[in-house]
Design brief:
About 25% of the residues lie in helices and about 30% in strands. By secondary structure, it is α+β, with helices and mostly antiparallel strands. It has 2 domains: about 1-105, Rossmann fold (3-Layer(aba) Sandwich); about 105-135, no CATH class. It has a 4-stranded antiparallel β-sheet with strand order 2-1-3-4. The protein is globular. It starts with a helix and ends with a helix. The mean pLDDT is about 90. The structure holds adenosine-5'-triphosphate and magnesium ion. Adenosine-5'-triphosphate binds near residues 19 and 60.
């Protein structure tokens, strides 16, 4: 029983992300430039914990969040969120998390706070009446 309670809600094992981008060297010459943004990240976060991810610019914070929220494919390694494994169960992960990427409101900046809640509630398939009361 205790072992079940202590199961991490986020479990990351060996998560590695290497970006590859083309670097122009001249009119007809280019080479592939590699950036290791995450290198073998292991991390356990337990239910009820508040976890802050701190680091200097370029440390890989956004890359890690994007991998965990299924927005970016890791190069290798894996993670489990709410018991669902990254590359196996993307839809279940998306349905079980909430994510607000700061400064990336994109299309939704014209919506009020209440309209935002209503919109995202609809994406999570909460019925209209329940959305109204919960918002
Ligand atoms: N699409 C990309 N293509 C190539 N390299 C990238 C790409 N995105 C990020 N990087 C590089 O990966 C590394 C990690 O970047 P990331 O954005 O994850 O860092 P961060 O910790 O979120 O930084 P910041 O504090 O500035 O938001 C940096 O060296 C960055 O230049
Ligand atoms: Mg960032």
């Amino acid at each position: 029983m205790i072992a079940r309670i202590m199961e991490p809600i986020i479990k990351i094992r060996g998560l590695t992300k290497i970006y590859q981008s083309k670097q122009r060297l001249g009119l007809f010459r280019s080479r592939v430039k590699e950036v290791v943004a995450l290198k073998d990240v292991d991390l356990d976060i337990f239910p009820g914990e508040s976890f802050g991810l701190l680091g200097p610019n370029g440390a890989g914070k956004t890359t890690l969040i994007k991998c965990l929220t299924t927005l970016l494919l890791p190069t290798r390694g894996t993670a489990w969120l709410n018991g669902h494994q990254l590359e196996r169960d993307e839809n279940a992960i998306r349905a079980s998390i909430g994510c607000m990427l700061m400064g990336e409101r994109g299309l939704y900046w014209k919506l009020t706070g209440r309209e935002n809640l209503d919109f995202f509630g609809a994406l999570y398939q909460i019925p209209p009446d329940a959305r109204k009361t919960q918002a």
